[in-house]
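Bench notes, afternoon.
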Amino acid sequence: MKHWHWISLVFLAVVLAVVALAVPRLGGGPEKGAAQVPLVVSLDMDTSDGPCTDIDASASHGTGETYDVAICATGLYNGPGFGIGSFQFDVLYNDSLNAGTEVADAGTALDDNPDANENEYGDGLGSGWACDNTSLAFPKGDKNPLTGPGNGDAFIACNSLTGPYTLGDNETAGVIAVIEFTAISGGDDSLTIEALGYLAYPDASKMGTCLDGDDYPMACTGGTDNKTGSTATPTPITPTPTPTNTPVCGGAEQPTCTPTPTRTATRKAWTYTPSPTATGTAAPSEPSGPSEPQQPPPPPPTGGQLPQVVPPGTGSGPDGIPWAGTAVWLLAAAGAVSVSLGGLYLRRARRR
């Protein structure tokens, strides 16, 4: 019976080891599950109550009025390591109705237009930010020399190499940047966020992009601004008739002549044709987008949504079987093997 005693102790030790390995998994740990809140970047067209306080999709402004439009982010993860580390956006508009204020390029361009929210519009992006892209691409109120609907282009691209990164690290929503416009003519202006816009983590891996079909999609919504007031129209040009020098019969130029009927200057009909729109040069190249995904620990969100910690008791093993079920199965198997070996030993002992 001594041998049976030792065999039982060995199998008991195996069972305890299996349970010890399984128990930490049952608590869920740091594993991430499916995202619950979508990541969205949108334009707040009315910032009179504060940028991104509530996101207004439309607003009205009179011609000559200067006003702000805010770029807002919602649905951020709100966890250490998940802060915004870099971003880039082009907001497209009709620059025959709107004028984007241009600020002189200087330093790290933190007070340019568009103006990155380092912390001046409530809790912001954090510290260590620069928007000059090593003096290669400063923010622009309108970087496109062409005019008309969609040709206005308010551009901004910023990053922080040192942090701390607060927006997304300890906040789920906030102001990314604010753009200053002046209404210059009456009409409705539709503002959109260009498809190459993106948010990225501090390690430059993707958080989300505005590009349809991307592995990390992010909803990017624009807005409408109604300009009240006069609409600019071209002023017609009236030509000046050229006088006709007709020699006077009997005068010094023509002492003898046959009188002819007096010519009366007539005014030509004139049709004004507007000058063709000037063709500008290609817009300067923008800084490159974020690098290919390098999943931050834990991995960034997918499917346009953010990760969420799996609640305790719902973790699973590598084969998809819940850890709780796996532990019970191992306990049952170990017990069955113990009983089988014990019975075999007893039968042999009786034969002796």
